[in-house]
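User: Hi! I'm working on a homework problem where we have to compare a predicted structure to a textbook description. Could you give me the structure for the chain below?
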Amino acid sequence: MAADDRRREILRRLQIDSYVEAAALSRDLGVDASTIRRDLDALARSGQAERTHGGARGTAGAPNDIPYAVKEGERRREKLAIARAAAADVRDGQTVVLDSGSTTYQIALELRHRQELTIITNDLRIGKYTATLPNVRLLVTGGELLGSVYTLVGERAVDFMADYSADWAFLGADAIDPTAGITNTNTLEISIKRAMLRAASTSIVVADSSKFGERTLAKVAAIDEVDRIITDRERPIERVAEYGPALTFA
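Assistant: Happy to help. Predicted structure tokens:
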């Protein structure tokens, strides 16, 4: 099992049990103890776990977001297709809001040849990349940093978004379900995501097909509160008709 897959599994277990034992992880994941220690140390450095004697526990007061480095390597082909479809209708001179995430980062890459764009983002990785583009005006929200996912959140970020209007908002999602709607694991991100939806004339959620039919802790929006949802065809989506006309495939 690759390091990214192991660390994702460790985070999944932390979300369920709040504690993981190194010896059990070594046995269950089929790797030696030193490998597990390195995984736990890496998660501790990213703020996603707190090391204990013989294992790790979830960081007190902090949500267990999947680190950016893990997300970035997952389903890369699908994310590229989704990003291309999402960026296709963006025109020169428009204003685009990009939520934090690995798929929205790919949208930023797809927009690199547009002229005179204004990009608003709460993602420091997207900000760093678009800052190198001479044809982009970049606005980065203020707020508190969620370090492992390079995301700015909080009242300052929400207040910042309230001062702007955009043509497009592209949002990521942790889970999408016809009944539960668009949901997110980290409650700290909910208010800024909702502010992005309010700021844009057209709102689009981008999420790979593994996110469908699932629900997580906090609701961002109902399905009918966004204009489009773009996904891939890699995994069959059950109850597809219940997502309505908003659901489109890359």
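For your comparison, note the following. Residues 230 and 248 are 5 Å apart (CA to CA). The chain is about 35% helix and 25% strand. Good luck with the assignment!
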